[in-house]
Amino acid sequence: MSTVAFVALVVILVPRMPRWDRVKQSFFSGEQFADSFPRLLDAFVLDLKIFAWSVPVILGFGMLVALARVSRNPALFPIRALCVIYVDLMRGVPVLLWIYLIGFGVPGLGLERPWNSPLLWGTVALCLTYSSYVSEVFRSGIEGVHESQRAAARSLGLTHGQALRLVVIPQAVRRVIPPLMNDLVSLQKDVALVSLIGPIEILRQAGIDKSKFANFTPYVVAAVIFLCITVPLTRTADWLLARERRRTGATRVAA
Amino acid sequence: MNAHLSIRGVHKAFGRNEVLRGVSLDVPRGNVVAFIGASGSGKSTLLRCINLLEPIDDGEIVLDGTDISAPGFDANVARRDVGLVFQNYNLFPHMNVMRNITLALTHAAGAEKSAAEASAMDLLTRFGLADKARAYPEHLSGGQQQRVAIIRAVALKPSVLLLDEVTAALDPQLVGEVLDLIAELRTSGMTMLMATHEMSFAHSIADTVCFLHDGTIHESGTPQEVLDAPREERTRTFLARTNRR
């Protein structure tokens, strides 16, 4: 009920604002929308490609870092320490800054083509930062699996590695799928940050269109295209989370 | 020296807390030993040490003449020969009953999947759980889960089975089915060591009862000797307290 009232208020009031006509012209121009849409959709393919390359790298590397951090072997102490430093560094600085530092910094070393592409190193920066987030998610999942599960596996004669691979990790991953999905939704959006160091993906293409036609509608088009991907992803994450809650028997507290 | 399992002077401390202070015991093949004693007397720790889940600080654990606690002996091989069943079942929740049982058979004992499933099915049928083969642990009662956990350990054909308070987490009406399974295993000649609070069950099934106190075997003997006519004052106090509950 309150939602309906709010929407009604916006629909009635916003067009009465003194400059609404101009805003409408520069943000919601139908012509401009139709003109920019195919071009932006094309550019969005690059975003999807970066996303598709990054996800397996992030999941794999994130899991490796998580495993290194939960290992108890004293011989692995240096690797554990290195992982802690890595995660702290990556998580402590905004993604954008890492994209600038790595994306401009590494090609600046004077590497040969194709190793000097800002697109490549921007994607590397994205992978490095997101791997650190994801490693923390995996780590919490692994630590959430009760010690007795490992004991049961070992008591049956499974090796330490088998216990991890067959018993601990599958349970850990199942637990963290919802938070993992949330990180992937963020990643899907942050892919656009790579545009700031050069590659012409959707956000940059929208900027080019905006300047060319002196109209902000391309940004709205870009937003709509992003929403088409991120909203279903978010809803799926919520649905998985709710299912996980039901499965583990946690009851919902009425608001 | 024809004991099947010999525990010799086993010591185990967690930090400064000395849980086992020299436990020695010879178990002939096919015998059932019941460990009784207050919580914290070291029953569980002793069983976990025999399965090598906890490394011992001193002493030996000799199985069929081999010191399995010796450094350098492959603990993973020893564990397949010494099954351990836990108080809280510890089934793998992401696997169905069949996979719970066959996992170690295929991955640790090197069995073919089909052979492992056939022997698991045999055991499930024998213990009346054949219809649960594809069920997940969360859909089983506590008694069923514990029976599956015992079958999971037995499937590896261990020569010794360790049972750590396997009925302690069960509702009273579910205890019977688990005890029946253990009694059946006894008739098949399985050597078993169990920590238990079920005095009447210990009385009926055990060949030897050991009262653990302060990290040592304070008194041991036949169930009649230890449970009916204890010689030691501490044993008497413990039994008097237990029987009153």
Strand-and-helix sequence of chain B, N→C? Answer: EEEHEEHEHHHEHEHEEHH
Please identify the top-level CATH class of one domain in chain A. Mainly Alpha
CATH architecture name of chain B: 3-Layer(aba) Sandwich
Number of strands of chain A: 0
Largest interface: A-B, 17 and 24 residues
Distance between the termini of chain A: 17 Å
Number of domains of chain B: 1
How many separate helices of chain A?
10
What is the terminal-to-terminal distance of chain B? 41 Å
Order of helices and strands of chain A: HHHHHHHHHH
Indicate the proportion of strand residues of chain A: under 5%
Assigned CATH architecture of one domain in chain A: Orthogonal Bundle
Explain the overall architecture.
The complex is a heterodimer of chains A (255) and B (245). The relative contact order of chain A is 0.13. Chain A is flat. Chain A has a domain at 49-198: MetI-like (MetI-like fold). Chain A has helices spanning 2-13, 20-27, 30-70, 77-91, 95-105, 118-144, 147-155, 160-190, 202-213, 217-247. Helix content of chain A is 77%, strand content 0%. Chain A is mainly α. Chain B has 245 residues and is of the alpha/beta class. Chain B has one domain (5-244): P-loop containing nucleotide triphosphate hydrolases (Rossmann fold, 3-Layer(aba) Sandwich). Chain B has nine helices and ten strands. Chain B has helices spanning 43-50, 75-81, 97-107, 113-126, 142-154, 172-187, 199-205, 223-228, 233-244, and strands spanning 5-14, 17-27, 32-36, 58-63, 66-67, 82-85, 160-164, 191-195, 208-213, 216-221. In chain B, helix 3 (97-107) crosses helix 4 (113-126), helix 3 (97-107) runs parallel beside helix 5 and helix 5 (142-154) runs parallel beside helix 6. Chain B starts with a strand and ends with a helix. In chain B, 43% of the residues are buried. Chain A binds chain B through residues 148-149, 151-159, 162, 166-167, 170-171, 174, and chain B through 48, 51, 53, 76-77, 79-80, 83-84, 86, 88, 90-94, 103-104, 107-109, 152-153, 156.
